[in-house]
């Protein structure tokens, strides 16, 4: 078993799949942005100082603060390994 | 009938609104929130309708106070803005996420039109939509395609409004009801269930092949680069402000001259009397004091609108957010602070885009510390008066350096005060950004024009009313005095003029000066002298401090009246000479370096602007914030000026 992989720790250019979002007030807002279980994300680039981070969410670019990204647990796609 | 216009942010909703209503729009208020309600007239075959532009949201559930209007208006049939039908603008290039809001509205049983917008972008991404499949899924909705940026599809929308489909109770997601506004766990369940249902209908969209790295993505590698990103932003700022100061000066001088001659002309044609004085000395200069700022504000918002339209502004937010956060601000605070360099009023208003309450309050509270254009005439007069026009290190002009220093002082204190406020303002909510970064595109000039027109109109109406009203009050206080005090002073000045054999022009100025000294304002100026004496000011400066409450630049004109000189408006040369000659009773100059610098520091900090205060009150919906603001800025101004005076004398 792999340990929990957080979206905030994924390197630029890699693709992952959303597993779950931590219970918090922001959860419903993150979901509204299309971040639901099974969604494919690609880490695009980071702002200077590594925060915020921009992701491709199936055709649009979403940027999240590092804190917001760390609420999201992800996993690598079966075909792609780190 | 009322028709609601809804949609996610960045779907081209405002283009659709402008296309449908043209210039037949007006701005109103939603009850209880600060977001503007844009309402436009829309004429279809079945009659005239009212199109209400709601704030762009991703869901009916609000993520900020201002977004609550969507939920309250749509979910409560008794609300004043409950619509008879809804038009939902959907970004065709991002269908899945956009369907969340659409299906929620569909399930609320409103007659609804889905406008598939941005079809050109979708086509570029090789996404093709099966409209017939969508119609099967939403049998009680009208579905049509448009491209509002190039204004196609208007007639199709009008036809759809004329032939609205009746609602008979069909639901897209029949299992779960829309949750209540503060029941977050149920909202999560509802959103999850809805997205699950949406993912089952992926057959409505066919993606032929994924395009390779887009042009936006390549540009972003440069524009958010740790070095080039900031460098490019800095260069863009310098260019914008160069443009504003280079090009705004010409129309501003024209406006200044035009109002002065209009006032003179009115004075010559109207019969002499108090009503004429009210018009020529109170109302016309008051309106002039509003109009003079239009060129700068219009130019600034022209540039900001272009940056916004092209999508660059969201990249600025992206690279600035981490820097602004330790200060209690947000990446989105950059625009309000920048705008405040022209005028704090549009700056405070543009803080609305910050959805986090605490970060928005801090932005509003510190924005007026940025040196606005009304301070420029005060700065230039005082710098010319007390700072030598010399060069240091062979090339740097000291006067220019001091002017730069005043701007820097304002900006740095704004950031420091933000840090302090971060500790004092308590909130239960954690700040968040969650920003959608739209693809880069060429600006759409019609939209730029409409944004510009709205900003200028908002400034003229909101700030203008207050500035004109205060100008009239101040005029009255400068025109009237207790008893016959002013008449006696005028007679005395008249006699003095005769003995000194002054020309008629000089005599009338001397009389005006004596009258002002004995008016209510003059008496107030003298009354506050003991308070401002430690700062190095006399009662004449006191009068000008009070009169400049309408707008800071009035300081210059008021000084000219007190010193009984003709202020020629551009170089202030005769005024400067008079001020330079001014001596205290002990023979030292009133306008020493210490006093002059102290006065500059005072103007950097002091909240000498009633119009901004009124706008802060409106934006924060309470008197608490403007009162704290005038209080802390007053303390800063007094202490700063006092320390400056002591250090330099």
Your description of this structure?
The complex is a heterodimer of chains A (82) and B (649). Chain A is mostly beta strands and 82 residues long. Chain A has one domain (4-76): SH3 type barrels. Chain A contains two helices and six strands, in the order ββαβββαβ. Chain A has helices spanning 27-32, 66-69; strands at residues 5-6, 15-21, 40-46, 53-57, 60-64, 72-76. The longest helix of chain A has 6 residues, at 27-32. Chain A starts with a strand and ends in a 6-residue tail after the last strand. The mean pLDDT of chain A is 87. Chain B has 649 residues and is of the alpha/beta class. Helices cover 59% and strands 9% of the residues of chain B. Chain B has helices at residues 13-21, 68-75, 95-107, 119-124, 131-137, 154-162, 184-199, 215-223, 228-269, 274-291, 294-310, 312-324, 334-342, 344-350, 357-366, 376-386, 398-424, 445-479, 485-499, 504-517, 520-527, 529-532, 539-547, 554-562, 573-581, 593-605, 610-620, 624-648, and strands at residues 2-7, 25-29, 36-44, 47-53, 85-91, 112-117, 127-129, 141-145, 205-207, 391-392, 396-397, 435-437. In chain B, the strands form three sheets. A seven-stranded mixed beta sheet of chain B has the order 2-3-4-1-5-6-8, with helices on both faces. Chain B has a two-stranded antiparallel ribbon with strand order 7-9. In chain B, a hairpin with a 6-residue loop joins β2 (25-29) and β3. The model of chain B has no long low-confidence stretch (mean pLDDT 86). Chain A binds chain B through residues 25-34, 36, 38, 44-45, 47-49, 51-52, 54, 57-65, 67-68, and chain B through 58-59, 61, 63, 93-94, 96-97, 100, 125, 127, 184, 187-188, 191-192, 195-196, 199, 216-217, 220-221, 224-226, 229-230, 314, 318-319, 321-323, 325, 331, 429-430, 432-439.
């Amino acid at each position: 078993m792999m340990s929990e992989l957080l979206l905030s720790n994924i390197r630029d250019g890699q693709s992952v799949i959303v597993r779950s979002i931590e219970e918090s007030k922001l959860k419903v807002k993150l979901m509204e942005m299309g971040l639901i279980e099974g969604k494919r994300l690609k880490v695009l680039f980071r702002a200077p100082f590594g925060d915020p981070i921009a992701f491709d969410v199936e055709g649009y670019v979403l940027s999240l603060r590092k804190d917001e990204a760390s609420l999201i647990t992800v996993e690598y796609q079966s075909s792609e390994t780190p | 009938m009322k028709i609601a216009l809804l949609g996610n942010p960045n779907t081209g909703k405002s283009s659709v609104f402008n296309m449908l209503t043209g210039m037949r729009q007006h701005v109103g208020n939603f009850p209880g929130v600060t977001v503007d309600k844009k309402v436009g007239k829309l004429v279809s075959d079945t009659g005239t309708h009212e199109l209400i532009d709601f704030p762009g949201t991703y869901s009916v559930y609000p993520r900020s106070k201002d977004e609550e209007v969507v939920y309250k208006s749509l979910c409560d049939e008794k609300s004043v803005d409950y619509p008879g039908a809804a038009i939902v603008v959907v970004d065709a290039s991002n269908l899945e996420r956009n369907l969340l809001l659409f299906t929620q509205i569909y399930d609320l049983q409103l007659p609804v039109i889905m406008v598939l917008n941005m079809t050109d972008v979708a086509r570029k991404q090789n996404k093709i939509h099966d409209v017939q499949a969508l119609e099967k899924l939403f049998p009680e909705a009208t579905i049509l395609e448009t491209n509002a940026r190039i204004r196609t599809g208007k007639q199709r929308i009008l036809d759809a409004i004329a032939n609205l489909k009746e609602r008979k109770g069909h639901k897209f997601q029949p299992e779960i009801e829309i949750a209540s506004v503060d029941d977050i766990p149920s909202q999560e369940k509802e959103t999850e269930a809805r997205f699950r249902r949406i993912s089952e209908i992926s057959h409505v969209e066919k993606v032929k092949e994924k395009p390779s790295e887009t042009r936006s993505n390549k540009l972003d590698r440069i524009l958010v680069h740790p070095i080039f990103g900031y460098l490019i932003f800095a260069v863009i700022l310098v260019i914008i402000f160069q443009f504003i100061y280079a090009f705004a000066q010409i129309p501003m001088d024209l406006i200044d001259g035009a109002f002065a001659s209009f006032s003179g002309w009115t004075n010559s044609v109207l019969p002499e009397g108090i009503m004429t004085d009210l018009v020529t000395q109170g109302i016309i200069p008051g309106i002039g004091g509003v109009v003079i700022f239009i060129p700068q504000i219009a130019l600034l918002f022209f540039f900001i609108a272009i940056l916004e339209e092209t999508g660059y502004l969201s990249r600025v937010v992206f690279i600035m957010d981490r820097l602004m956060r330790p200060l209690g601000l947000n990446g989105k605070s950059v625009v309000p602070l920048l705008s405040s360099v022209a005028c704090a009023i549009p700056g405070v208003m543009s803080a609305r885009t910050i959805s986090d309450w605490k970060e928005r309050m801090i932005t509003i509270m510190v924005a007026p510390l940025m040196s606005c254009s009304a301070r420029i005439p005060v700065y230039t007069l005082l710098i010319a008066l007390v700072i030598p026009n010399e060069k240091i290190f062979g090339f740097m002009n000291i006067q220019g350096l001091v002017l730069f220093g005043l701007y820097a002082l304002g900006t740095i204190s704004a950031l420091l005060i933000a840090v302090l406020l971060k500790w004092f303002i308590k909130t239960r909510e954690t700040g968040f950004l969650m920003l959608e970064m739209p693809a880069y595109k060429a600006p759409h000039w019609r939209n730029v024009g409409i944004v510009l027109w709205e900003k200028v109109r908002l400034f003229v109406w909101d700030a203008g009313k207050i500035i004109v009203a205060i100008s009239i009050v101040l005029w009255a206080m400068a025109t009237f005095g207790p008893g016959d005090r002013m008449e006696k002073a005028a007679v005395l000045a008249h006699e003095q003029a005769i003995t000194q054999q002054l020309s008629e022009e000089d005599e009338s100025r001397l009389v005006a000066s004596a009258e002002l000294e004995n008016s209510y304002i003059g008496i107030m100026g003298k009354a506050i002298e003991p308070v401002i004496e430690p700062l190095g000011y006399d009662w004449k400066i006191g009068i000008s401090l009070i009169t400049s409450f309408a707008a800071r630049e009035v300081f210059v004109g008021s000084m000219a009246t007190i010193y009984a000189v003709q202020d020629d408006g551009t170089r202030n040369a005769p005024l400067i000479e008079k001020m330079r000659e001014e001596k205290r009773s002990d023979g030292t100059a009133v306008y020493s370096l210490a006093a002059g610098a102290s006065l500059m520091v005072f103007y950097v900090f002091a909240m000498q602007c009633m119009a901004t205060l009124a706008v802060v009150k409106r934006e924060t919906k309470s008197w608490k914030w403007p009162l704290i603001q005038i209080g802390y800025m007053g303390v800063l101004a007094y202490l700063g000026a006092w320390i400056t005076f002591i250090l330099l004398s």
